[in-house]
Every structure is written in structure tokens, then in C-alpha cells.
């Protein structure tokens, strides 16, 4: 029996892609699968997203991994290239790269025989990557004049606060993007998952969903289910042992949790070494064979303990659900850890087995 498992439901993934298309019907979809597809398994997710118009990753090595796995669709490298070797690889593997600084343009001008389709990034207020509005026109001119340019560069920016409904910051970013790119050729992309949901005017020619593809809400106070999405990851393990406690017994490192009455304790094969957050407090909910349980004591590297209740009939080998499905959304667990769903999903470690399932049959 394996320990922790992340069950990845590609039917849910395709459902979420359809929901995004319904939200932005006039836009093409650049599906963001960086960071191992937010912990879901990048290659399997890419294969399941055959209906997306393109895929996006953060780094060249992620894109090459996809190409080596046989993924032939357009792939955008969001952080772009950082040296001549990466520029050559981008051309060799037909990667679209984002250009966000002067040094990248100089590199391309000095290596003009290596062609790749480009996106030019405008900094509209995130103040992370991208050209200022004052620099943008000159940067665009230099890219258009590259001998290796295959097409007019795409035009891109990124929201900082789209998760806040009716954000004045987002409206200002949208205004600046539209104003700066007005009259320039090239397709435009601004809306991330939160922008797709909260700012319809930002949809433009391309949208870039990330978290929402995986059935998780980018909007505080809402779950994916609230937005018509289905969770793609079901993170679970199994009951490793049980113990009967009397009132006053303590559990785990630091003896932090103490039984206030006779109860039954469960031990599960999962811990922070698998990506289950150490920061989770006592009382965090779990489900054991479909029944409620509560975390007891600190999360260890390989194990967690939880209060099953005195009348529990749980048995060794029973499933322990850590998050997933509508009964235990990852948004709830992230809030308990004082974190965000992005981090929890991305931290699911490599020793957790990924089981890819469809409505037809499981595939390992």
C-alpha cells in the first residue's frame, strides 16, 4: 500500500476549462501549468488540456520537459530567456518567450539567427517584470525589427489585485495597458484567473487561467464550487494506526495537544515531508472513511495524528482525506494554515504518488 496519494481528475480539469471558455467566450486560452502544474503533474495535465489554445510555463526547462514528452502545442515561457543557450533552445523547441527587460532584447539582437515567437510585457503596476509605459514603444520597435521575428509580438501584462472585486488598482492597470498598447499590432493578454472572474473587460484576445483550471478559487472567501468549478486534486492517505487515550494523555512533539476525555486517536501516513503543512493548527478538519476527524498535535515529517472520537469504528487501512472534493476544499485547509491554496498545491512533494483518473479508468 502506498502512502499519500494525489488523485488527479482530468474530467474535472476539462470541466473547468469549459467553465473558463464560458466566462471568456471570445478569448483564446493560455493554460498556465508552471510549477509542475501547481503540483498536479505537468505532463499529465498538459496531455489532458489538448483543447487549450496554448500552454504557459515559467522556465525554459519546464517547456523542454513538455516537448520531450511529446507535447506539440504552442508553449509560452513566462519568465523568458536569460542567456544565449536558452535563446537557442527556445528556437530549437519552437517556444514562445516573454520579453520583459532590455537585456533580453540585446541578447536577441546579438543572436538574430535564432528565432522564436515573442510576447512583450508591460509593467502596469505589479512592479515585478516588464517595461514601463515610457519604455514600451521603443522595446516594441526593436522586437518588430529583429531579423528573426516571425510575427508581431504579443502584448502582455499582469494584474496585482484582480482577486479583489471592483479593485481600483486593477481598473487603473487595465486602463494603462489599453492606453499603452493602443494602435500597436499584436494580440493582447492581461487576465489571470481572478481577472477572468472579476474583470470581463480584461479578457481581450487571450486569457491566462492558472488556479481556476484546477478547480480552486482565486477569490478570497469563495471556493471553487461557489464559482462552478470542480477540484482536480484529491489529496489523501490511509490510517496507519490507532490508539486509545485517556483524559490527560498528550500527543506529538511538544505535548501540545492533550485529551480532555477518553477518545480514540488515529495516525495517518502523511506529514510535511509530503506537503501537508506543518503550520496547520489543532482542530484542522480531515475525513476518515467519510467521517469527520480533527488534527491533534503538531504535523510531523511523515505522520499526523487526529482525534477520531470515542465511538469511532475506523480501522487500519481506511482512507484519510486531507483535502479535495466539495466536502473538504483546499481553500479551507489553506486558510487554517494561514496560507494560500497555491502554496499547498505546489508543495505536494514528489514522494506523493499521482494517480491520473478519467471517467473511463484510472491511469498510473
Describe the structure.
The protein is of the alpha/beta class and 364 residues long. It is built from eleven helices and 19 strands. The chain has two domains: 10-214, Alpha-Beta Barrel (TIM Barrel), CATH 3.20.20; 233-363, Beta Barrel (Lyase, Ornithine Decarboxylase, Chain A, domain 1). The strands form three sheets. The chain has an eight-stranded parallel beta barrel with strand order 2-3-4-5-6-7-8-9, surrounded by four helices. It has a six-stranded antiparallel beta barrel with strand order 10-13-16-15-14-17. A two-stranded antiparallel ribbon has the order 11-12. Residues 360-364 have low confidence and may be disordered.
Give the name of the CATH superfamily of the largest domain: Alanine racemase
Question: pLDDT average, as an integer?
Answer: 94
Q: Please give the largest β-sheet.
A: 8 strands, parallel, barrel
Query: In total, how many beta strands?
Result: 19
Amino acid at each position: 500500500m502506498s502512502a499519500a496519494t494525489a488523485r488527479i481528475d482530468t474530467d474535472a480539469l476539462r470541466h473547468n476549462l469549459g467553465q473558463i471558455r464560458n466566462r471568456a467566450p471570445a478569448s483564446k486560452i493560455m493554460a498556465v501549468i508552471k510549477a509542475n502544474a501547481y503540483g498536479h503533474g505537468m505532463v499529465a495535465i498538459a496531455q489532458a488540456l489538448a483543447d487549450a489554445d496554448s500552454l504557459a510555463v515559467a522556465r525554459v526547462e519546464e517547456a523542454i520537459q513538455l516537448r520531450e514528452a511529446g507535447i506539440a502545442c504552442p508553449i509560452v515561457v513566462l519568465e523568458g530567456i536569460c542567456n544565449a543557450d536558452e535563446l537557442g533552445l527556445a528556437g530549437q523547441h519552437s517556444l514562445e518567450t516573454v520579453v520583459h527587460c532590455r537585456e533580453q532584447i540585446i541578447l536577441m539582437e546579438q543572436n538574430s539567427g535564432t528565432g522564436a515567437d515573442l510576447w512583450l510585457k508591460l509593467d502596469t503596476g505589479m512592479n515585478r517584470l516588464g517595461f514601463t509605459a515610457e519604455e514600451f514603444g521603443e522595446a516594441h520597435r526593436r522586437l518588430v525589427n529583429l531579423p528573426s521575428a516571425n510575427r508581431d509580438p504579443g502584448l502582455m501584462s499582469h494584474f496585482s489585485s484582480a482577486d479583489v472585486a471592483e479593485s481600483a488598482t486593477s481598473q487603473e492597470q487595465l486602463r494603462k495597458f489599453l492606453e499603452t498598447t493602443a494602435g500597436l499590432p499584436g494580440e493582447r493578454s492581461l487576465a489571470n484567473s481572478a481577472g477572468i472572474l472579476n474583470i470581463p473587460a480584461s479578457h481581450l484576445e487571450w486569457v491566462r487561467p492558472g488556479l481556476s483550471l484546477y478547480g480552486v478559487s482565486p477569490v478570497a472567501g469563495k471556493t471553487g464550487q461557489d464559482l462552478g468549478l470542480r477540484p482536480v486534486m484529491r489529496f489523501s492517505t490511509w490510517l496507519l494506526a490507532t490508539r486509545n487515550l485517556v483524559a490527560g494523555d498528550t500527543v506529538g512533539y511538544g505535548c501540545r495537544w492533550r485529551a480532555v476525555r477518553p477518545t480514540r486517536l488515529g495516525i495517518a501516513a502523511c506529514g510535511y515531508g509530503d506537503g501537508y503543512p506543518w503550520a496547520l493548527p489543532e482542530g484542522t478538519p480531515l475525513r476518515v472513511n467519510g467521517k469527520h476527524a480533527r488534527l491533534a498535535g503538531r504535523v510531523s515529517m511523515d505522520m499526523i495524528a487526529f482525534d477520531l472520537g470515542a465511538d469511532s469504528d475506523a480501522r487500519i487501512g481506511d482512507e484519510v482525506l486531507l483535502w479535495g472534493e466539495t466536502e473538504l476544499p483546499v481553500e479551507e485547509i489553506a486558510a487554517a494554515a494561514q496560507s494560500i491554496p497555491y502554496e499547498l498545491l505546489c508543495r505536494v512533494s514528489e514522494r506523493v504518488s499521482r494517480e491520473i483518473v478519467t471517467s473511463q479508468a484510472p491511469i498510473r
